[in-house]
Amino acid sequence: MSSPLSPVDLQALQAIQAQLRASDALGAVDRFDALPVHVRDHPNGLFLRALLLQAFGRLPDARQSYEAALELAPDHPGLWLSYGNLLDDMGEGDKAVEALQRATALRPDHNDGWIDLGIAATAAGRFEVAEAALARAIRAAPAVARGWAALGLLERQRGNTDTAAQLYRRAIDLDAGDVRSRHNLATLLREEDRPQEALEEAEEALRHGPAPPETATLRAHLLADVGRHEEAVAGYRDILARIPEHLDAHESLALLLPQLGFGAQALDGYRAALRARPGSVALWGSALRSAFAIHDYVQLAAWGQEAEALVGPRPDVRIARAAALSRMGNHDRAIALLRELLDAAPDHARVHQHLAHCLIAAGDPKAAEAHALRATELDPTDQAPWALLTVIWRLLDDSREAWLADYERLVMPVDLDAAPGFFDELADRLNAMHVMRDHPAEQSLRGGTQTRGNLFDRRDPLIRRLVAQVHSAVERRLRELPDDPTHPFLSRKADAIDFGGSWSVRLRSDGFHINHIHQFGWMSSALYVSLPPEVCDGEAGALAFGIPDAALGLNLPARRVETPQVGRLIVFPSYFWHGTAPFESAQPRLTIAFDALPKN
């Protein structure tokens, strides 16, 4: 046990804590460092030190300080409460719950402790613990908005979205300034395909402020959702002017601008932010991902070299730099960089995958094979190395290509049984959703537009009918496939599927899809909704399988070609290379696509 601090020492700690609450973290640190050693090493001093470290994002160091304080003061409820909340922030849910249970046992009359326990238990998936804690908190203080808001979080995690919305609204009725509940309600409404209502709630949260930056970012997302694109761009830029390291705003802006015809400006926000925060590892990682996504390989190569000099040869930096060099034709240098990285990280799946890609492009499929196979061993669900193996084994005339890429069996056309006029009505509905000027730079289409968000999440009755038809037709078709425990697609086959991303594409004349795969899917698709007459015969606008990524520099013909037909859905493994031929017509080519995962 530690000796009590003097009143003067306690006043000094309280003054520093007040300074921290006033957002003067740097000044608070200076004053803390000037305290006598016996004060800094006292449990109260270690507690304050942990809070200061948290303010600077140094969570592991804050944890050490909390644990040192708890060794000296194991019955301090405030320490256990803050320690539990820190563990929750660090993603250690079960330990967070244990710490908060200790806090509430030591001080059962502290209502915020029960609410914090409910929030942490919800995040940890321990719903019964959360429900009991929140029920106790609400019984003790039914007029406190925070308890109802936390119960809303729990119900949302349970999938009870209508109940969650009611609970958020109850919290707001109790406290109109409950910005977090307004934010959570706006997020839920957006997921429920009610973007205008969500936007109104987000703007109300900002009016009641101060709101977290995530609320301003949510507002910008919603402005884009409802077609107010100039305001969305202005919103993202305002966030970045205030918070240069706000990654969500950066990434959203970089992907939105090319669709509005301003692709040359897509990475400008990063350029300004990197000048202001040149040592930010997270910012560099985001900038490199965005440059790769929009295929700006010149900028990617330059940034890769600059990032390596500033933050070191981290795997993500080195991979990005090598990927850019390879796509610019400098395969030898890319291969050398990745081999150096493998020496330090021999079991890094993405390094093996990218090295395999570079070796194929350099004309050495045999050397590529070992790295692609190793990548599949390290991450069997990643579709990219399997896609590379379809190319490698084809180039090597290896019979395993036919086993892995059985185009006759695994390219599966399914004709949907829709009512007359269904697809005409669906085409009208989808055309109204295509409001962008140009294609997303990070996606496969060229010469067209793509809808925002997950199409299958929309509440539109027509979309819901389509989802039900697709669901049953695909699951019925999958049941016809054989079992093969060694096959990357067939081994994951289940009785049901969950949809991942879903979207609509509208291609105009001369539009097409480059050859690509869906790296994070399992099964991918194309559903034809409306077609110009020119694509219903011959190869114009047809879907071709087996032609690999142009970056590999290969001239391989298609293994299978499917002619589109309205109402026809084609499903196939996500690692199958696929793309479409251009077409010429005054009428657009309108499709829907989705990725699916097996439901276990």
From TrEMBL:
GO terms for molecular function: identical protein binding. The keyword tRNA-binding does not apply. The keyword NADP does not apply. Residues 192-213 are annotated as: Disordered. TPR repeats lie at residues 43-76, 77-110, 145-178. Keywords: Repeat, TPR repeat. Pfam families: 2OG-FeII_Oxy_5 (PF13759), TPR_16 (PF13432), TPR_19 (PF14559), TPR_4 (PF07721). Transmembrane segments: none annotated. InterPro entries: CHP02466, TPR-4, TPR-like_helical_dom_sf, TPR_rpt, Ycf3. PANTHER family: PTHR44858:SF17, TETRATRICOPEPTIDE REPEAT PROTEIN 6 (PTHR44858). This is Tetratricopeptide repeat protein. It comes from Sphingomonas horti.
